[in-house]
């Protein structure tokens, strides 16, 4: 054992010095690098999300209700070592002299916020500071918008309910401020002690009570179990899992996708490892025969050579982890901005996964050829012509392949996505293999009529047909990915942008009060020359479907649960709005349609709503029931105001409503926007141009991150090329020397090599273009519903990129072959 | 399992046949031989006579189609491959026409190898000692490709003798060397053989070298000829 390890260590050092194992090490480092980059990165994002989610709640756990939470619950939480705090939120009116303003009032108990921090400033343009406490008794902190809306300053007094309080600071940040743009009244924050004095919390008033909790996960879980049976219908628990679900699931998908991208690199690296290990094993055959001859057992031989590789695997894997660390820092930097701040520092575990992947790749792909060394006959020392035992069949690699699939499943945690990616890779591989085989066949015919350099270049490709097909595959695949991320992405984005009609609305105004509708419409018309449509909007909760009370647990998907239980924005209209189309049932006529509703078909599908179903809504403490009489298809990408549920005016007209509108403001008329905002201070403006710009920046950055990860795929492709070149290096050396002895010039040999590799690169580029346009077409048609223009650039860019990468790498790998003095090589035989 | 007479090597009616495209090929046909401990035997014959095949069978690198071989008193047919390897470890040395040094080990490490395989703790010291004995004390750190053919074969000699083997098999040890170097290596081989009292089986074309052995066995077309 010891002797075998010592032997392995010495052999490793020597082989590394001699450059024997560089390709193997490179491939392993790439595999480890790709996986650990993604692992480290997604781990950081996940932890950032968990942290952010906690901040979004201002707690780890929240109990929400329209009633006060029993004191017993808080005592129980304290008993279990949890921190707790209470808040009460309600909509109220602030009064200063004659002026009034709707505000979102919040009273908070000491300790709030349990997670995250409040920030405030002494004046609207003063220096912000992080707060550790809450407003003093008798004082309030307010949103800067309140100061603007009511023309106030810090130090002024405002009336809230029956009390009057002094504005002491400007509240600039509140972790649990919701993202809902439709409920923005300026925030007013007071201390718990002043709540009772306002007289606003009465039995009938609409108030949200929150009990905030934070502490150890196990204590929280214990408390949750204790609390669950006591909740009844009035109380609801919200945990981190429920916070920012859309971002969470999007990033989970992205993480799964990145992991799979990394695993494509691992697969390619595995191919390189298999090729390099085959050559390594072949070159060790003599040595292992000598070892057996000197009395080494089969076990010793296997142990020695396997240990050498495992040691190499650990070294290369660690190297890859270092690369992964650098890589994740890079994409972490790219994405941190999108996440709204810093990511937590990377942890160790994901890097170790990278190391494990390197070792698994080694075991799966390098061990089979190596196992042959144990079967080399010692007789080989006497008879050099004794061949190696037969190469392992495809079946031996099944273990490696199976391990890869298991790894993919584990890392992506998504069987469906993994299946699609695997199927995609397989189909692409099959198509590429067939195409590559045909190309190589065509080359064979071509070489009969061409010059010397061409003849040798083509000869090399055609003779090593199997190797050539493998290289074409690896490069074709890597280039496919490259092209998808560059040309195809740009084409799709352009097509998408082209699809937004030129006059599409770029501004949304929400929170328009009923008495402002007329004046605002006139102003917009003056600005744009068009009469805008202002839609009334009433917020209501779906309480029953066909008579059955809504229960979130009845819905299968999180999306459905969310849609069913959140507040709906209901609107009422006479006519079918523009960009809407009735797909089932009939639209109500203007004469007394009765209690009916029209539902967007996507929502109807998600929530299982059909024609004739009865929906019961609660709006402002009143309930009513409507029957679904039509389903609509909505062109969401028209960027117009649209609603999931529309009702006839007579059903909703009595309820308090705000209005919403959208319109297109040409860039030239932008200057008028400021005036409009000042004239209607309570109206919230949503700038779609800015939003689109933001979306584009996100897409760009995410693509950059993905491109970075696919950079590993490209590197793995280069490793495959090097492995393939290396596998033929001995033979190439020998042939080059023979040719030179026969009078061939160095320049001639180099030309032949250049022909071989440039041709290989061009063909791989063509294959890549073929696959990329196939995938692009599929994406455009099936996923994005866009016209596919064919990406003419692909056919130019693909071969050029292929020639550049493969040509350079190929020449770099064989440069010395052409330059070697023929004698040295021939003598070595 | 030692036989009564302390023969180092004994072969009885050893034949070797292999399947070839033209049918069965008879490489060896009923070869008998005995080598006493400490004795030296030269095996001569034209190229293709079956000398290397015989050597491989005697050393247990392969098994005969018929007949029996005893090595250091052990019936090779009763041992499996690893058993035969274990029998060779530290007890049997080899020198080959093509040197067969491990290219990824230094001269010193090559010499240490059989010692380590035999479980010796002082492999390094012993290797230095034997390298000095073959006149390569300064070259221990060199790799095979940095040495001339004669030097490589001297390293191979050091490697073969280092564990103090009872039996040494040499297959045309001077075949790849020019005459002068060959003569030097031949001298060294017989000097060491005398010093260590090793049993020697030497396959060679070189009649001068064969003449230095106590006995000669002539092979032709797989048969012993007188
Ligand atoms: N396994 C084998 N298969 C086919 N032919 C073999 C095999 N082993 C040896 N031979 C042939 O048998 C003959 C004797 O070989 P060998 O013992 O190497 O001869 P020598 O060492 O005397 O030159 C040669 O012609 C050789 O090619
Ligand atoms: Mg021979």
Provide a descriptive summary of the structure in words:
With 829 residues, chain A is an alpha+beta fold. Chain A has four domains: 1-55 and 248-413, no CATH class; 56-247, no CATH class; 438-502 and 692-829, no CATH class; 507-687, no CATH class. In chain A, 55% of the residues lie in helices and 17% in strands. A six-stranded mixed β-barrel of chain A has the order 2-3-9-6-8-7. Chain A has a six-stranded mixed β-barrel with strand order 13-15-20-17-19-18. In chain A, helix 7 packs parallel to helix 19. The two termini of chain A are 35 Å apart. In chain A, 42% of the residues are buried. Residues 179-183 of chain A have low confidence and may be disordered. Chain B has 226 residues and is α/β, with parallel strands linked by helices. Chain B has helices at 51-58, 81-88, 107-117, 123-133, 149-161, 179-196, 207-211, and strands at residues 7-20, 23-36, 40-44, 66-71, 74-75, 92-96, 167-171, 199-203, 215-220, 223-225. In chain B, the strands form two sheets. Chain B has a six-stranded mixed sheet with strand order 6-7-8-3-9-10. Chain B has a four-stranded antiparallel sheet with strand order 2-1-4-5, with helices on one face. In chain B, helix 3 (107-117) crosses helix 4 (123-133) and helix 4 packs across helix 5. Chain B is globular, with a radius of gyration of 17 Å. Chain B starts with 6 loop residues before the first strand and ends with a strand. The mean pLDDT of chain B is 91. Chain A binds chain B through residues 3, 6-7, 10-11, 14-15, 18, 20, 286-287, 290-300, 377-379, 381-384, and chain B through 52-53, 55-56, 59, 61-62, 81-82, 85-92, 94, 96, 98, 100-105, 109, 113-114, 116-119, 143, 159, 171. Bound molecules: adenosine-5'-diphosphate (ADP) and magnesium ion (MG).
């Amino acid at each position: 054992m010891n002797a075998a390890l010592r032997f392995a260590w010495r052999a490793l050092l020597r082989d590394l010095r001699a450059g024997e194992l560089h390709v193997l090490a490179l491939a392993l480092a790439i595999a480890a690098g790709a996986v650990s980059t993604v692992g480290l990165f997604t781990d950081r994002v996940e932890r950032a999300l968990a942290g952010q989610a906690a901040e979004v709640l201002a707690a780890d756990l929240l109990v929400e209700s329209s009633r006060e939470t029993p004191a017993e619950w808080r005592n129980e939480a304290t008993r279990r070592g949890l921190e707790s705090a209470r808040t009460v939120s309600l909509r109220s009116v602030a009064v200063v002299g004659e002026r009034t303003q709707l505000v979102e009032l919040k009273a908070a108990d000491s300790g709030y916020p349990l997670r995250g921090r409040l920030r405030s400033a002494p004046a609207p343009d003063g220096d912000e500071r992080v707060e550790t406490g809450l407003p003093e008794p008798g004082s309030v902190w307010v949103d800067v918008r309140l100061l603007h809306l009511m023309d106030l300053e810090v130090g002024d007094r405002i009336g809230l309910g029956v009390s009057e309080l002094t504005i002491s600071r400007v509240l600039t940040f509140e972790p649990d401020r919701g993202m809902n743009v439709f409920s923005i009244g300026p925030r007013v924050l007071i201390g718990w002690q002043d709540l009772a004095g306002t007289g606003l919390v009465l039995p009938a008033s609409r108030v949200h009570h929150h009990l905030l909790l934070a502490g150890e996960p196990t204590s929280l879980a214990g408390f949750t179990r204790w609390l669950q049976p006591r909740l009844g219908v009035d109380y609801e628990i919200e945990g981190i899992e429920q916070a920012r679900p859309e971002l969470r699931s999007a990033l989970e998908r992205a993480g799964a996708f990145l992991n799979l991208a990394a695993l494509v690199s691992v697969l390619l690296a595995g191919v390189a490892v298999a090729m390099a290990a085959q050559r390594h094993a072949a070159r060790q055959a003599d040595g292992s025969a000598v070892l057996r001859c000197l009395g080494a057992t089969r076990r010793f031989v296997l142990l020695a050579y396997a240990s050498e590789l495992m040691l190499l695997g650990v070294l290369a894997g660690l190297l890859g982890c270092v690369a992964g660390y650098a890589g994740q820092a890079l994409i972490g930097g790219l994405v941190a901005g999108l996440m709204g701040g810093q990511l937590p520092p990377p942890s160790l575990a994901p890097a170790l996964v990278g190391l494990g992947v390197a070792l698994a790749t080694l075991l799966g792909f390098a061990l089979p050829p190596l196992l042959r060394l144990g079967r080399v006959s010692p007789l080989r020392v006497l008879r050099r012509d004794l061949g190696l035992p037969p190469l392992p069949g495809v079946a031996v690699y099944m273990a490696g392949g199976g391990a890869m699939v298991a790894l993919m499943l584990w890392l992506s945690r998504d069987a469906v996505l993994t299946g699609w990616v695997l199927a995609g890779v397989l189909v692409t591989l099959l198509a590429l293999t067939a195409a590559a085989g045909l190309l190589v066949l065509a080359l064979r015919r071509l070489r009969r009529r061409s010059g010397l350099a061409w003849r040798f270049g083509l000869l090399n490709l055609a003779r090593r047909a199997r190797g050539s097909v493998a290289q074409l595959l690896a490069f074709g695949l890597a280039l496919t990915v490259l092209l998808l991320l560059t040309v195809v992405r740009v084409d799709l984005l352009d097509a998408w942008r082209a699809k937004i009609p030129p006059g599409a609305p770029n501004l949304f105004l929400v929170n328009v009060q009923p008495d402002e509708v007329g004046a605002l419409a006139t102003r917009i018309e003056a600005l744009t020359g068009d009469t805008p449509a202002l839609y009334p909007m009433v917020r209501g909760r779906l309480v029953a479907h066909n008579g059955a009370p809504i229960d979130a647990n009845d819905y299968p998907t999180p999306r459905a649960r969310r849609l069913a239980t959140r507040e709906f924005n209901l609107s009422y209209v006479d006519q079918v709005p523009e960009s809407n189309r009735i797909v089932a049932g009939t639209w109500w006529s203007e004469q007394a349609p009765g209690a009916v509703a029209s539902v967007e078909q996507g929502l109807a599908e998600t929530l299982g709503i059909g024609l004739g179903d009865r929906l019961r809504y609660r709006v402002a403490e009143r309930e009513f029931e409507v029957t679904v009489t039509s389903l609509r298809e909505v062109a969401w990408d028209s960027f117009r105001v649209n609603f999931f549920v529309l009702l006839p005016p007579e059903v909703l007209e009595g309820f308090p409503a705000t209005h919403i509108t959208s319109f297109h403001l040409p860039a030239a008329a932008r200057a008028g926007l400021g005036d409009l905002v000042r004239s209607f201070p309570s109206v919230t403006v949503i700038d779609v141009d800015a939003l689109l710009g933001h979306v584009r920046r996100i897409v760009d950055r995410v693509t950059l991150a993905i491109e970075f990860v696919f950079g590993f795929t490209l590197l793995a492709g280069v490793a495959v090329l090097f492995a393939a070149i290396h596998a033929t290096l001995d033979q190439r050396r020998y042939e080059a020397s023979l040719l030179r002895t026969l009078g061939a010039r160095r320049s001639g040999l180099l030309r032949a090599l250049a022909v071989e590799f440039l041709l290989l690169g061009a063909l791989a580029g063509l294959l890549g273009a073929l696959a990329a346009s196939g995938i692009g077409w599929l994406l455009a048609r099936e996923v994005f519903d866009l016209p596919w223009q064919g990406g003419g650039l692909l056919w130019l860019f693909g071969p050029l990129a292929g020639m550049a990468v493969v040509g350079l790498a190929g020449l770099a790998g064989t440069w010395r072959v052409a330059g070697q003095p023929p004698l040295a090589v021939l003598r070595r035989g | 399992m030692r036989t009564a007479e302390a023969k180092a090597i004994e072969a009885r009616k050893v034949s070797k046949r292999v399947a070839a495209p033209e049918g069965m090929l008879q490489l060896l046909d009923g070869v008998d031989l005995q080598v006493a401990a400490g004795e030296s035997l030269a095996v001569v014959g034209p190229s293709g006579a079956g000398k290397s095949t015989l050597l491989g069978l005697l050393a247990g690198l392969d098994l005969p189609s018929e007949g029996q071989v005893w090595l250091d008193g052990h019936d090779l047919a009763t041992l499996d491959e690893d058993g035969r390897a274990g029998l060779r470890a530290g007890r049997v040395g080899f020198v080959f026409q093509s040197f067969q040094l491990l290219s990824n080990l230094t001269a010193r490490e090559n010499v240490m190898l059989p010692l380590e395989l035999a479980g010796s703790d002082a492999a390094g010291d012993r290797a230095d000692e034997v390298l000095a004995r073959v006149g390569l004390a300064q070259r221990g750190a060199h790799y095979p490709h940095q040495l001339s053919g004669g030097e490589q074969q001297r390293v191979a000699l050091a490697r073969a003798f280092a564990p103090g083997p009872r039996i040494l098999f040499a297959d045309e040890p001077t075949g790849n060397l020019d005459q002068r170097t060959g003569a030097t290596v031949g001298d060294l081989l017989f000097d060491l053989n005398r010093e260590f009292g090793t049993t020697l089986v030497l396959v060679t074309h070189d009649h001068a070298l064969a003449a230095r052995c106590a006995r000669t066995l002539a092979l032709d077309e797989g048969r012993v000829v007188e």
